[in-house]
Design brief:
eight-stranded mixed beta sheet, 8 strands, 6 helices, Alpha-Beta Plaits, globular, alpha+beta
């Protein structure tokens, strides 16, 4: 901790609403805004309940840090479940992709910096809506085994498993074969 803010070995979570620009264009900003606000409320509650510190938000995305990988996973699953349980308008359902990584970060000028943060953002970008993609670094901190990864990526940035905490029907629509879907 530096000035009451986390630093050192941490877990990083990035999230983003899949297709948010298209959704806002189709609904109009006036109808999209309450959906965006509810999304923020649900995720912030899950992050806070699991020890997360919001480091940044832009548009419909979040960057949150956690003291442990276990806390980050718990927050991500809780957030996805809350989003999945919400009664969204039929034409305004949102699907959020999340990516998690863990590693070292330092404070510089009031912000966290480090390569593992950049990797977490890239991991989130490969997720589909409704999925949580975790790196081997996160899995290693959980003691997980049985990784199925792409050998072409560096060990610390491999996205090794996708966890879909919503129903497998929703998860299975457009997910790669290496995805693990679990019923909530």
């Amino acid at each position: 901790m530096i000035d009451g803010k986390p630093s050192g070995t941490l877990a990083f979570l990035f999230s983003d609403i899949e297709g948010s620009t298209r959704l806002e264009q189709s609904l109009g900003t006036a109808r999209y805004t309450p959906i965006l606000q509810r999304h923020r409320e649900l995720l912030r509650a899950a992050f806070a309940a699991n020890g997360g510190t919001e480091e940044g938000t832009e548009g419909d995305s979040f960057f949150v840090v956690f003291p442990s990988a276990r806390d980050a996973i718990a927050a991500a699953v809780e957030g996805q479940r809350a989003l999945g349980a919400e009664a969204w308008p039929p034409d305004g359902e949102i699907r959020v992709r999340m990516g998690l990584n863990a590693g070292e970060a330092a404070r510089a000028g009031g912000s966290l910096v480090g390569l593992e943060i950049n990797r977490a953002a890239r991991i989130a970008a490969v997720a589909n809506g409704g999925q949580i993609v975790v790196s081997d670094a996160v899995r290693g901190r959980l003691g997980a085994t049985g990784s199925r990864t792409s050998a072409s990526r560096s060990r610390s940035s491999r996205s090794s498993q996708k966890v879909c905490p919503r129903s497998s029907r929703r998860c299975g629509r457009s997910t790669p074969a290496r995805t693990t879907c679990r019923r909530s």
